[in-house]
Design a protein that fits this description.
The chain is of the alpha/beta class. It has helices at 47-56, 71-83, 123-132, 150-157, 175-178, 191-196, 202-206, 251-264, 276-290, 300-309, 322-333, 350-363, 376-383, 392-401, 416-422, 441-445, 462-466; strands spanning 7-11, 13-26, 33-46, 61-68, 86-93, 97-104, 107-114, 138-141, 165-168, 184-190, 214-220, 226-229, 234-237, 315-318, 338-343, 368-374, 406-410, 426-429, 450-453. The radius of gyration is 27 Å and the shape is elongated.
C-alpha cells in the first residue's frame, strides 16, 4: 500500500513579495526606470512553498523552520493555520526572510532581499522536533539561512536510515555537507547550482558518498528537462508536456515536492534504476505545470496524470506491452481514473458511441477511456461466419476517432487477462446487459472496480444494421 503518512519539511522559509506595475519614464535623478505601482502580492517561499506544493499533491506536512515575530512571519503562520494540513514547528528568529521582486509588465526590473540568518544555537530547538518526527520521510529545503546544518542532519539521518530523503541543496554546498549515512538519498538541484560546485559530471558528485549508500543526483535544466546520475547509470529526461511559462519563481520548490511525492507513491517498494526515469518525468510534470501561465496549484496532480497519459493517447495495440503497462501503473498511482469499454465493437453504431461517451463521463476530463476489443478470430468465434464486418484495424481507428484514448486488442474470446492488467475503475457494458449476468463482474470487483451499464438505445444492433433492419422504435 502506498505511503500515506506525513512528510517532514526542514528548511528556510520566506515570504516572496511581488510588486507589479508599469514603467513609462526614467528617473531625472539617475538613469533608472520609475515603476508606477499597481499592486503587491505575497506568497509563501522557500521551505514554506515546498510544504504548500506537497499539500497540493495530497500529503500532510510537518514544517520545521524559522520565522520572525513580524508582519511577514504572522502572514506565514496565518497561512499555515488556514491550510489545516500543515503543522508548523517554528523557531522564533529575529525577523522573517523576504524576497521582494519588482515587475513591469513581464520584465523583472529589481529584487530586494532581507535575509535572516538563524544562529547556531537554534539547533537546540530543531533537534528535539526532528527526533519526535524521526519515523517520517524528510525533505530538506536549504537556502543557507541557518536552519539546515550538518549536525542536525547527521542526528536525523542516523536514526531511520531507510526512510527516503530528498535534499534541495543550498548554492555551493556539496554532498558531504548533508550526509554520509542515509541509504536512499535524492539530491535535486538546478544547472546553475551544479555548475557552482565545479563538477563536470554528476558521477563525481555521487562518488563522494559512501559506497554503502544509494544516492541519486537530479539536475534540472529548464525547458530541456533534467539529467540524473546514480553510481551506475545516467540519462537525460525531457519534459513530456510543456506549458507557456509565466514566472519561474518557485520552480525548484515545486520540483523538490514533486520528486518526494513521486518517490512516496512507490514507497515502501525498493526502487531500482528502472524506476528513476519515470520518477524524474513525474517531478518535471509538477514543476513545469506549477510555473505555467494557467497554473492552478490544486490541479498539479492532474498535470502529472496528463503527462503520463499523453504517451498513451491515439494508439491501437495488439496486447499490452511492458511500456504501456508501466504507464498505466503510473497513471493509477497518481489517482488517474480508467474506464474500459470492452467487447467485439464490430459494426460501430450509435449504441457503441453511447458506451464511449458514458465511459468518458465516468473517467472525467483527465481520465483514460480504453477500449479492449477481440481480435478478428475472437469475433468470428463469438458471432459466427461472416464476422467481423470490420477488421481489427478498422475497428480500432473508428474507436480512436470516436473519443477512445487507447485501444487494446486481445486474442480469442476472453478479456480477463487484459482487464487484470489494466485494472479499470469502471467497466462499461451496453444497456442491454443484465448486471448480475456480466461475466466480468466478480473479476472487476477484485481490485475495487465497478461494472456500469450505459443507457440503452433500443433496437440498435450491429447485425440488424448490416442487414438493413434497424428498428424505428
Amino acid at each position: 500500500m502506498p505511503y500515506d503518512g506525513p512528510v517532514v519539511v526542514l528548511g528556510d522559509s520566506m515570504v516572496d513579495k511581488i510588486t507589479f506595475g508599469s514603467v513609462t519614464r526614467v528617473s531625472p535623478e539617475r538613469p533608472i526606470p520609475i515603476l508606477n505601482k499597481d499592486k503587491t502580492e505575497w506568497y509563501p517561499g522557500g521551505a514554506a512553498n515546498t510544504a504548500l506544493n506537497l499539500l497540493h499533491l495530497g500529503h500532510k506536512v510537518f514544517l520545521i523552520t524559522a520565522l520572525g515575530e513580524d508582519e511577514e512571519g504572522e502572514y506565514l503562520q496565518s497561512w499555515v493555520e488556514k491550510t489545516g494540513a500543515i503543522i508548523l514547528h517554528n523557531y522564533v528568529s529575529e525577523y522573517t526572510t523576504v524576497k521582494h521582486r519588482y515587475i513591469a509588465g513581464r520584465q523583472h526590473i529589481m529584487r530586494v532581499d532581507r535575509d535572516c540568518i538563524v544562529p547556531e544555537g537554534a539547533r537546540d530547538y530543531f533537534l528535539p522536533q526532528l527526533n519526535e518526527l524521526r519515523e517520517y520521510p524528510i525533505l530538506v529545503s536549504d537556502y543557507k539561512k541557518g536552519v539546515v546544518t550538518p549536525q542536525i542532519l547527521d542526528n536525523r539521518m542516523g536514526v531511520v536510515p531507510e526512510r527516503p530523503i530528498v535534499i534541495d541543496p543550498g548554492l555551493g554546498r556539496d554532498a558531504l555537507y548533508y550526509t554520509n549515512k542515509c541509504k536512499d538519498i535524492w539530491f535535486k538541484m538546478n544547472s546553475r547550482e551544479f555548475q557552482e560546485l565545479g563538477y563536470r559530471y554528476g558521477c563525481q558528485f555521487v562518488g563522494k558518498l559512501s559506497s554503502k549508500l544509494n544516492p541519486v543526483l537530479i539536475v534540472t535544466e529548464g525547458d530541456r528537462g533534467a539529467t540524473f546520475w546514480t553510481r551506475s547509470i545516467s540519462s537525460q529526461i525531457p519534459i513530456v508536456k510543456k506549458y507557456a511559462v509565466d514566472d519561474t519563481t518557485g520552480a525548484g520548490d515545486a520540483a523538490a515536492a514533486g520528486l518526494m511525492s513521486a518517490i512516496l507513491r512507490r514507497y515502501p517498494k525498493t526502487l531500482t534504476n528502472k524506476d528513476i526515469p519515470e520518477i524524474v518525468q513525474e517531478m518535471l510534470a509538477v514543476a513545469s505545470y506549477r510555473v505555467s501561465v494557467d497554473a492552478v496549484p490544486s490541479n498539479m496532480i492532474y498535470a502529472v496524470q496528463d503527462s503520463i497519459s499523453s504517451s498513451l493517447l491515439g494508439h491501437a495495440c495488439v496486447g499490452l506491452s511492458d511500456d504501456i503497462a508501466q504507464s498505466l501503473s503510473a497513471f493509477r498511482r497518481w489517482g488517474g481514473k480508467i474506464a474500459v469499454v470492452s467487447g467485439c465493437l464490430d459494426g460501430f453504431h450509435i449504441g457503441h458511441l453511447g458506451c464511449v461517451r458514458y465511459a468518458r463521463d465516468l473517467a472525467g476530463n483527465h481520465g483514460l477511456v480504453i477500449a479492449t476489443i477481440n481480435d478478428d478470430d475472437g469475433v468470428r468465434e463469438l458471432k459466427g461466419p461472416g464476422r467481423p464486418y470490420m477488421d481489427r484495424t478498422s475497428r480500432g481507428l473508428i474507436l480512436l476517432n470516436a473519443g477512445v484514448d487507447l485501444v487494446l486488442i486481445f486474442p480469442g474470446t476472453c478479456n480477463f487477462d487484459i482487464l487484470r492488467a489494466v485494472k479499470p475503475d469502471y467497466l462499461v457494458k451496453g444497456g442491454d446487459y443484465v448486471l448480475d449476468r456480466v461475466k466480468e463482474l466478480e473479476l472487476v470487483k477484485e481490485w475495487g472496480g465497478k461494472v456500469e451499464l450505459a443507457p440503452m438505445w433500443k433496437g440498435v444492433h450491429s447485425t440488424d444494421l448490416f442487414k438493413g433492419g434497424l428498428d424505428e422504435t
